[in-house]
Amino acid sequence: MISSEALLCPKRWLKGVPNALTLCNSLCGFWAILNTLDAYNRDPVDSSTAAIFAVSAWLILSAMIFDALDGFAARLLNAISMHGVQMDSLADMVTFGVAPATVMAILTHKLRGTMTGSQEFITYMLCAVYLGGAALRLATYNVHAIQKKSGDVFSGLPSPGAAAAVCSVVLFAEGAKIHLDNIAGWLPVYAAVLGVLMVSPVPYMHFGKWLVNLRRHPRQIWLLLVLILVVAVFRGYGVLVLITLYVLSGPVMWLFRLLTGRDLRLLEGGD
Predict the structure, then answer these.
(1) Distance between CA 138 and CA 133 in Å, rounded?
(2) pLDDT tens for residues 104-155?
(3) pLDDT exceeding 70 applies to what percent of the chain?
(4) Structural domain count of the chain
(5) CATH code at 144?
(6) pLDDT above 80 for 92
(7) Is residue 122 part of a domain?
(8) In degrees rounded to 5, what are phi and psi of residue 36?
(9) Which pLDDT tens digit goes with each residue over 216-236?
């Protein structure tokens, strides 16, 4: 005779699917960090060095698939829990916080050649601003998840969006055959700006909710198809333009609200 505990076993396994996907997210980030460290074993003028950073960027972008799927799986399997929320934020801190900061710091240090002590300090401090912004954003997300606050848009740039912005620049340079040392000097500055945006009150569209509402808004399906077509045709160029437009959309929305006086419902925190 089969016990009731045995019958519940498959459900218990299914409940673990979201956590498994979250682990895949963090493993992609860990792999990206290890892969980036390999740049120290390569010649800066060797083309394989640029390829190392491109692979790290792809690993971080790939983690976003798992980051999206774990939330979807949790809702589908009715496995949403505070344990999962905390675990998701920890994984995001590794993949969208530590990994991009590591890519930027090592890319700049390796490809700019010999730097003075002050140059190294400034570079690492700029990367630290990005890392600190990601940590503060994810901590705020956890607090508001406990308080069950929600809305239509994020307050501040989501950490996956910030990581995607960094990765898109690296992939664009690699695809366009632009030597990465040409962007190494200003990439940490861009990262620091992204770090500030993550903790700012600037509103950003909640892309996940936008996708969920596709069936109720047919026009959005056409827009999504256009976005996919742009990426398919223009590849690195398309990805860079679309992500940059998303980063800029926040300040534009903020200025619009400031000038018109119209308020927007915000999702404080956000990942």
Answers:
(1) 9
(2) 999 988 877 667 778 889 999 999 999 999 999 999 888 877 776 665 567 8
(3) 80
(4) 1
(5) 1.20.120.1760
(6) yes
(7) yes
(8) -65, -40
(9) 566 666 776 777 787 777 777
Output the 3-class SS for the chain: CCCHHHHHHHHHHHHCHHHHHHHHHHHHHHHHHHHHHHHHHCCCCCHHHHHHHHHHHHHHHHHHHHHHHHHHHHHHCCCCCHHHHHHHHHHHHHHHHHHHHHHHHHHHHHHCCCCCHHHHHHHHHHHHHHHHHHHHHHHHHHHHHHCCCCCCEEECCCHHHHHHHHHHHHHHHHHCCCCHHHCCCCHHHHHHHHHHHHCCCCEEECHHHHHHHHHHCHHHHHHHHHHHHHHHHHCHHHHHHHHHHHHHHHHHHHHHHHHHCCCCCEEECCC
Which tokens hold the place of 138? 């994810």
- The span from the CA of 245 to the CA of 250, in Å, is 9
Provide the domain limits for residue 177: 13-268
